[in-house]
């Protein structure tokens, strides 16, 4: 199994000291907490809508996981970031507004708890071959589905939707360009991306995410 995984992508040989690893983890928690605070502080604005949208979680977690040193590191990094962001976001609501939406917290919390599995898998998205391409296609397809109605929203009265959906599509383009290490791998992403798009779109999978 290890040999098969190494054939997709080998972990970085750059050895880091324990102090350096701990420093990175602390910074990751602080960044996550800052994102959670800012997202709640600007809640209701276009920026706030982006911060509380599933696309933001997907693209940031994908970037953190994919550029980690190893799949285990990716699992830990994704969980720490999302947990810190989630906790601060809802603590802000509870302390300042006396409001704690339990159902939303459980929904997003469940996603955060599952993030180590997703982070471990997503790490291989920057690898080689069709399996890596399929893994890379998964978050990109979610972003495209979430932002696909951007082209149908024409009313200025729903400009906030333009913001979140536009962010989803822009994030999809960024991941498509930078997740693969070369153009051949980028071409491999296209077939599973199309397949995943139609599966997600017509199975209404996005409706199961908290919003």
TrEMBL record:
Which InterPro entries has this protein been placed in?
Answer: DUF6518
Q: Name one Pfam family in it.
A: DUF6518
Chain segments annotated as transmembrane: 21-42, 48-67, 74-92, 104-123, 130-154, 160-178, 190-209
Locate the coiled-coil region(s) and give their ranges: none
- Which terms are listed as keywords in the entry? Membrane, Transmembrane, Transmembrane helix
Record's protein name? Uncharacterized protein
